[in-house]
């Protein structure tokens, strides 16, 4: 199945846990005035509800039926299922592990495929973040970015985030959790974590988020998805040598109307 019926342009940002893809994707959506799909949040909701209801994460049929029966709502940066807000709950480490286990099952992935594709219906573009956005969900996307970073750097970032939230955890444990998740996400048979053949790979190990965003915006401009920056900043930076980078935005790249 392909996504030939996309009604809006899509930028995919895939990558492993802690690579910074969430920060990049939200910043990119904000800068372009596009919508944002956090596909990991959908798997996390399934993981959270499975834990809540005592459904084993190796029971594919039960998880798929749970996923099919849930009414998951993603709006304004919040997420809920069956009318209950789960925005905080899904950020737990236990929920992340359950999500990664549930995500191994093809029937579970199938259950939320349409919901993910429907996110591209609309007038503004979509920035979609996950593991298989470029390979499975939106294979025809206009731009695919695969954001990577060393596992040690990703663990440091996650550790810092948790400490800032007041969660006391040790770095070695965070590193072990990330390694477990990487292994599960990369080795599973169904839609494993890997770059699409036409993805641009960015290694953010030694990069600040602002530099990653700048590189992503340059790529978006090269593909006609964003307008060229003002002349002054072009002259200051003189980074892009691509002759197409100053062309008009993609015809389907209308910004989200400001309300
Ligand atoms: O991006 P995240 O950490 O919120 O994702 C949580 C888990 O969900 C991740 O370990 C694997 C799974 N996932 C997936 O299999 N496919 C996606 N497109 C997004 C997430």
What does this structure look like?
With 259 residues, the protein is an alpha/beta fold. The chain has a single domain (10-228), classed as P-loop containing nucleotide triphosphate hydrolases (Rossmann fold). It has helices at 21-32, 39-53, 60-69, 93-102, 106-111, 113-118, 133-137, 151-164, 171-187, 209-222, 231-237, and strands at 10-14, 35-38, 72-75, 78-81, 84-85, 126-130, 143-148, 200-203. The strands form two sheets. Strands 2-6-1-7-8 form a five-stranded parallel β-sheet. The chain is globular, with a radius of gyration of 18 Å. It starts with 9 loop residues before the first strand and ends in a 22-residue tail after the last helix. 2'-deoxycytidine-5'-monophosphate binds at residues 17, 39-40, 43-44, 96, 99-100, 103, 130-132, 181, 185.
Highlighted features:
3-stranded antiparallel beta sheet, disordered C terminus, Rossmann fold, 8 strands, 11 helices, binds 2'-deoxycytidine-5'-monophosphate, 5-stranded parallel beta sheet
